[in-house]
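Collaborator request, handled under Task 6.
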Amino acid sequence: MRLVEQAKSIFADLGYTVEGNGPEFRAERKWKVVHVSTVLELDELPSAAGQFHCFVARPEDADTLEAKLKRTNPSYEWAIIVVDGDDYQVERVPPGPHVSA
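Structure tokens returned to the collaborator:
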């Protein structure tokens, strides 16, 4: 299965409505809209097209992608899902809400 099809399947299984064709699409559930990019070769990071962005990558691309995201520090919350065959895991999740006392 191609990476983009796997990414759409992951989000659909999590209860998101998936919209769009190609390597970038939107996943929406209740109030949350996530902009999803599948990563085979990532020369440029997406512009800030929303509050939440998820990158779906193969294991061999995950470390480079995470380093690039940390270096550029985009204005959106981001996560990385690593797909390896039929399995996947979330490598980096956005930080939770900040609580102050």
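The cover message to the collaborator said: "The beta strands are 17-19, 24-29, 32-39, 52-57, 77-84, 87-92. The two ends are 48 Å apart (CA to CA). Please let us know whether this matches your experimental observations."
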